[in-house]
Each structure stands twice: as structure tokens, then as C-alpha cells.
Amino acid sequence: MIKLVFIHKEGKFNGNSYLIDGYLFGAPRSLALYVIENNGTRMLIDTSTADNADRIIEKLKEFKIYPIHKIFLTHSHWDHTAGVNKLKTLMKDIDIEVLASENAIDNLKKPAAMNNIFEATVEPLDGVIPLKEGDLIELNGLKLEVFNFFGHTMDSIALLDEENRNIFTGDAIIDKSGYNYITPTFMPPDFNESELLKTFQKLRDMRDKLNSITLAHFGVWTDGDFEKILDGMESFHFDTKNSIIQWYKENLSSKEIAMKYFEKFIPKSKIVEYGLLDNLEMNIKWLLEGLKRSGFI
To answer: Any alpha helices (H) in the chain, and if so which ranges?
Structure first.
């Protein structure tokens, strides 16, 4: 029997890495942040929003990985970048390096367009160190390799930790917050399906180097769970995309599409029972905008 392991608890989950819950929208398991530590040097992956910065600091201290020295941004969407300036203020005695894709630099310097799409209030980020595919980030001997994982955005990057057979992918592949809640990644403003398919193949080509994948939304999927994501990510993309397009063509409202999505793809989730359909509808609106901007509807 294939072992299935989904790690969602905060704390250390391999030889060098920690999970911290980013509590996006105040909800647990809605956004995962990760810290990689090696011989006293620490790097945070993504930041959540500024209102969660104090809690993140508390968790860093609880796990004895405070302070951090670098922040790695998987892409320029607001929920991954909005906490950078607040965290830097709270750790003002540390000259924290911020790293992101070379394609993200302009988006981070001028976030107004992104803010408008998501009704966010991200502040400009200057002095971000640009990264390209093949770059190595070294944390006191631990080498981490950067890969372009375009598609979800055209500035999405992943980070391969070959020593621990793990890859950090942000939102680039899929959003899977537990066994019963899963959503696709075709978000605005620059979703690109052809690049996403290349990313799927790039990840499949790494299969022999990996036994876990860390998702921003949410958690660490290992062993059999990791294999299931790799085997099903492409068909899930097309199934959800084609279904949402069909429902849109039927002139259904975003709330009606959200209910259809719930019934077809996540019927075992508790979103209706817990009164969370509005959150799914918000996500559906963003997915529709991603499809519109990329010319599918």
C-alpha cells in the first residue's frame, strides 16, 4: 500500500524546513509560509499579509528560528508579498534580503495594477534581488536551486531543496488545502496556459529527485500524496477550466458557479455547512477574471 502523508501542522517537517500558518483572511490552513534554516541562516518563503506579521514573528521565536535573513517570494500576488515591509520593520536590526523572479521586479515596485485586480493595498517593494532559472541560493552550505514555474503568473518561481528531496512551488501547480478542498491556478493578471503545461512537465521531470511538494495553499504533500498531485494536476486543470467556462456560457452568476464547483469538485468540503460559500465565490470571480484576461472567455 502506498503511504499517504499530508503535513499541515506548524513546526519542523524535514531536516531544514518549517511550516508556519499564514492565516490569510484570518482562516487557518489558508496560506502556508515556510522557513528554511541551515547552520544559523534562515530564509522565509512568502509573507502573507501585514496584519499577520506579529503572529509570524511569534512563531519564528517559538520555533527558535528568529530572526530571518532572507525572504524568498514565489510570485508577486498580494497574499505572498504584502507582509514584507511590516516584517522588515519588526526585524529592523537585520538587513533582510528580499529575493524574487526577475520578472516580478516591476510588479513589486509598482503594485497598483495588482492591487486593483484583487482590491488589495500592497506597498511598493524596492531593492528586491532578481532571480532567474538556475540560480543557486546558498544557506551556509545548503544549496537551493531556482526554477521558473510560469503559468499561474509569469513571475512564479519554485525552489528545489535536493538534499531534502522537496520543492517549494507557491501557487504554481495547484491549491489543495486538505483532502477535501482543491482549486485551480488560472488567476489574473497574466495566466498563461502554455507555460503552465510546461511547468507541469518540468515538475514531472524532477520526480526522481523528489518525494514531497510544499504548496502555499496549503501544506506539505509527501510520498503517495505527492505522487497523486503529480499524476492528477494536469487533468484537474483542464477539468476545472472547462467546467467553469461551460457554466459561464450558461450565464450562471458567480455564486451559482461556486455552488456548481462545490457540487462537482469539492462535495466533501464543509464550505456550505460552515457558511463559507462567499469565500469560494470570491475565488471563482478571480478565476473567471484569469480566464477572461487570457482569452478563454
So the answer is: 53-62, 78-81, 84-90, 105-109, 112-118, 193-205, 223-249, 254-265, 277-293
CATH number for the domain spanning 197: value is: 3.60.15.10
Q: Is 116 inside a domain boundary?
A: yes
Residue 282 resides in a domain = no
Is 71 in a helix, a strand, or coil?
A: strand
Report yes or no: 253 and 40 within 8 Å, Cβ to Cβ: no
Q: Which residues are within 8 A (CB) of 122 and not within 5 positions of it... i.e. 6 or more apart?
A: 78, 81, 82, 111, 114, 115
Name residues whose C-beta falls within 8 Å of residue 239's C-beta, 6 or more positions apart in sequence.
265
Domain containing 108 equals: 4-225
pLDDT at position 138 over 80:
yes
Domain contains 244 = no
pLDDT in tens, 272-293: 887 889 999 999 999 999 999 9
What's the predicted TM-score (pTM) here? Answer: 0.96
Per the structure, how many domains does the chain have? 1
Give the whole-angstrom CA distance, residue 27 versus residue 285. 19
- Asked if residue 137 belongs to a domain, the reply is yes
Which has the closest alpha carbon to 104: 83, 134, 120, 124? 124
pLDDT of residue 5: 85
For residue 160 the three cell numbers come to 528545489
Whose CA is closest to 230, among 200, 198, 193, 209? 200
Query: What integer pLDDT is reported at residue 276 of this predicted model?
Result: 82
Contact 136, 145 (CB under 8 A): yes
- Kindly tell me if the per-residue pLDDT of 1 is higher than 60: no
The CA-based angle 248-174-283, given to 5 degrees, is 40
Alpha carbons 221 and 239: distance in angstroms, whole number: 22
- Tell the residue number behind the cell numbers 506539505, with chain if given: 220
The pLDDT score that the predictor gives to residue 78 is: 92
